[in-house]
């Protein structure tokens, strides 16, 4: 028997998580289903990195594990080969503190153990992100688009600027701002005004459309991006749709897992 045939294999899909059932069903479950259909000889499992969301769902009687607990369960069940694929976008705090650091200690429990890269790391990733964004822009008649990234105080926040530079080369009227990092909306507003933009479509540059997309982007509150832009005379049309809905994003996840599979089973 070859090693590959004896192997008991699992893919653990890790996202920050969401407590919005609708966001989970439109942006996380379809990614997992797609992975399960492409990698038929692997079990597919889920973990969330957000303790707050896990506790909230726990209160509703739903059990979702942190990556460390999910991998312990996987070890207990006798799996031999593990791929951990984050649906995070960058190598920031969540990736380092909830995935890489805790899981590295457990990797010797398995014959093979690989952690995939987040979704905005390689040149191919950025190309794919541009394509995903282009599809969204086409879906709104190619009118200007403002993307809401999450943003972080971690140096990985630079991915937003990197993506913006690439988008600017294509001259597409696509702008990126973040909720918790830089650039913020305040940095982008002067550019929109200078360009004379009167109408813009807002999309989350995030896996799911959760609190940030619903409240900070599209909300009725006076400091939501929609309200701020409207006060400046820019008609803002929010689209509360996470990127996990995108078939191209699902394809990107599949590519990352293929890379991991190549590392687990070289040749
Ligand atoms: Co946040």
Characterization of the model:
There is one protein chain. This protein starts with a helix and ends with a helix. It has a 4-stranded parallel sheet, with helices on both faces. A 4-stranded parallel sheet has the order 6-5-7-8, with helices on both faces. β3, α6 (93-104) and β4 (112-115) form a beta-alpha-beta unit. It has 12 helices and 8 strands. It has helices at residues 3-6, 21-27, 29-38, 51-59, 67-76, 93-104, 123-138, 158-169, 185-194, 211-217, 225-231, 247-264; strands at residues 9-15, 42-48, 81-86, 112-115, 145-149, 174-178, 199-204, 235-238. It has 267 residues and is of the alpha/beta class. Bound molecules: cobalt (II) ion. The site of cobalt (II) ion has 3 residues, from loops. Residues 150, 180, 212 line the site of cobalt (II) ion.
Relevant terms:
alpha/beta; four-stranded parallel beta sheet; binds cobalt (II) ion; 267 residues
Short summary:
The chain has 267 residues and is an alpha/beta fold. It has helices at residues 3-6, 21-27, 29-38, 51-59, 67-76, 93-104, 123-138, 158-169, 185-194, 211-217, 225-231, 247-264, and strands at 9-15, 42-48, 81-86, 112-115, 145-149, 174-178, 199-204, 235-238.
């Amino acid at each position: 028997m070859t090693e590959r045939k004896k192997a008991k294999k699992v893919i653990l899909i890790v996202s920050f998580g969401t407590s919005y059932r609708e966001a989970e069903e439109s942006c996380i479950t379809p990614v997992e289903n797609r992975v399960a259909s492409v990698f038929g000889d692997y079990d597919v499992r889920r973990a969330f990195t957000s303790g707050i969301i896990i506790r909230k769902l726990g209160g509703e009687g739903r059990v979702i594990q942190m990556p460390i607990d999910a991998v312990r369960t996987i070890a207990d069940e006798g799996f031999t080969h593990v791929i951990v694929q984050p649906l995070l976008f960058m190598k920031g705090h969540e990736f380092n503190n909830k995935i890489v650091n805790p899981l590295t200690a457990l990797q010797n429990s398995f014959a093979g153990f690989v952690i995939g890269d987040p979704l905005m790391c390689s040149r191919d990733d950025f190309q794919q992100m541009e394509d995903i964004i282009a599809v969204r822009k086409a879906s709104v008649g190619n009118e200007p688009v403002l993307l809401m990234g999450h943003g972080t105080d971690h140096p990985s926040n630079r991915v937003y600027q990197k993506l913006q530079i690439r988008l600017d080369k294509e001259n597409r009227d696509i702008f990126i701002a973040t909720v918790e990092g830089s650039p913020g909306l305040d940095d982008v507003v002067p550019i929109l005004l200078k360009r004379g933009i009167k109408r813009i479509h807002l999309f989350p540059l995030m896996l799911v459309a959760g609190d940030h997309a619903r409240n900070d982007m599209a909300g009725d509150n006076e400091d939501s991006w929609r309200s701020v832009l409207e006060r400046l005379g820019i008609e803002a049309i929010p689209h509360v749709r996470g990127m996990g809905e995108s078939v191209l994003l699902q394809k990107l996840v599949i590519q990352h897992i293929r890379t991991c599979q190549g590392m687990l089973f070289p040749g």
